[in-house]
Amino acid sequence: MRVLAAMSGGVDSAVAAARAAEAGHDVTGVHLALSPSPQQHRLGARGCCTVEDSRDAARAADVIGIPFYVWAMAEEFGRDVVDDFVAEYAAGRTPNPCLRCNEKIKFEAVLDRALALGFDAVVTGHHARLEQTPDGPKLRRSVDEGKDQSYVLAVLRPDQLAHAMFPLGDSTKAEVRAEAARRGLGVAEKPDSHDICFIPDGDTAGFLKRTLGEAPGDIVDAATGEVLGSHDGAYAYTVGQRRGLKLGRPAPDGKPRYVLDISPVENTVRVGPAEALDVDEVIATRPVWTSGARSTSFECVAQLRAHGQTFAATVTPADEGWTVRLHAPARGVAAGQAVVLYEPTADGIGDTVIGSATIETASREWVAANYTATTVGGTTVYDVTA
User: Fold this and answer.
1) Which domains does the chain have, with CATH numbers?
2) Is 228 annotated as a binding residue?
3) In 244, 327, 362, 382, which residue has its Cα 20 to 30 A from 206's Cα atom?
4) How many CB atoms lie within 10 A of CB 238?
């Protein structure tokens, strides 16, 4: 097959391209230039936007022995990822830019262009397994649980997955690095980046402040409405946040407070105890059925954030989205994140992706009606009562 290898400049994408070439595919490497000013972005880490990354990708392609090009996609990235990121925070939500980049850039803009140019598939260094079956593609978790990226790939439609390749899904990250070294790839020990690539200093609050401007408001107690402190912009907070609140007085019980809710209309951040973060019912919209749509309620495993805990769940689909009822409460669920559904497995983690949707609201009403909470050795245990 003619394959386009998306090469970020990191070790994963380099080894993925090398494996595709070794498997006999006609591989062409491409680096996505996503920043209008790449020289301003950080050095020394795997990203998508730096001059160093572009050079590392070119050197890797030379070692592999494949053609290499750079595609300028800063306009698309700015519109579909950066602008979306800012708008979501301004609306009091918590976006996932990596998920949006996979959806809008790597597997929409890039895949569409690749197919138009006669390529059969796009290969990336994502840690996930993909099986092309007679019933359609099956997206599964990586064997390396700590590096699994099926969550951020669950926004992809079956027709997109049909033209995707993820060669690293059966390998651990340590095995990938060892292989890169054997192949003579200079990125073998290049560190991973855990930052947002378009915020080079890692200061998300500062980036939003520079972009949206200051918007002072109150931090209030969610139960009493009492003003406890102030903020420079509600957009700088996210549900579940504990640090950086700078409250004027401690809670009566001496326990820390957490962000429970963000209201951009009132420009208010509401805080309260950790227990108030527990939710068990999630309403999600914009569903993507990765492995076939379903019209009736079904049992599954739900994951509510990348590398987060998984929960047994009952999902009721509707035209506009899903109602996801968790069989045990989850804490700190933020609107704007994705809920990803997996086929149940014996270990309770889930393996094959069913689909994903965007979280709109979360509540704790169902848990109160259906569960009894008891404390055992300082740990709260939830038992099903209905």
Assistant:
1) 2-182 (3.40.50.620), 214-269 (no CATH), 276-384 (2.40.30.10)
2) no
3) 362
4) 20
